[in-house]
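Per-record layout

source: Shewanella algidipiscicola
name: Penicillin-binding protein activator LpoB
length: 199
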Amino acid sequence: MFKKALVVSAAVLLMTACQTTTSYIDAADKESNLVAALSYADFKSAADSMADELVISPLMRHPEPNGRYILYISDVTNDTMQRIDTDQLVKSMRVKLLNSGKFLVTTAFSGEDSATREMRQLKDSKMVKQSSVKGDNEVYAPDFSLSGKIMQRNASLDNGDTRIEYYFQLSMTNIQNGLAYWEGERVVGKVTDGDSVSW
């Protein structure tokens, strides 16, 4: 019995010694969090640089002093081998664009926020004070739409490694005339051994 207890204790100690302890990481650090797949750091780097480019673009200057263009976030499609949420890229850009003081983002025309429409239906409710219900002809239409895609291309190298390239491509279209006023592209390239997977 004593021998059995000793073996169990030794096994538990061995398992405990091999466990990795949980610790915080700097998710924006590209070097220490390098993986074959797209990481938070990759999204943040691409989003920040494209948002900075948008903010200083001459065509994105509002004609009115302190005026802000209203943006509608259209489709950003995922053409990679990974199941990624493209909102991660867009959200990082939105935060930076809003904080720049040059842009506003409408969520009234997408599935993201249905409250703008739903709250208008309260005008028929006897429970709600009607003077507090938001009326018609008050929601602002967007000036621009932001759309794009994230693509992945893999290539085998002569030494057996795999080169993985991720392309972040975005366009800002003027809704009034349909012209692209800004386009941006960022490429994230990685080299990994042929056995690594990127999804």
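summary: The chain has one domain: 28-192. The CA atoms of residues 76 and 148 lie 5 Å apart.
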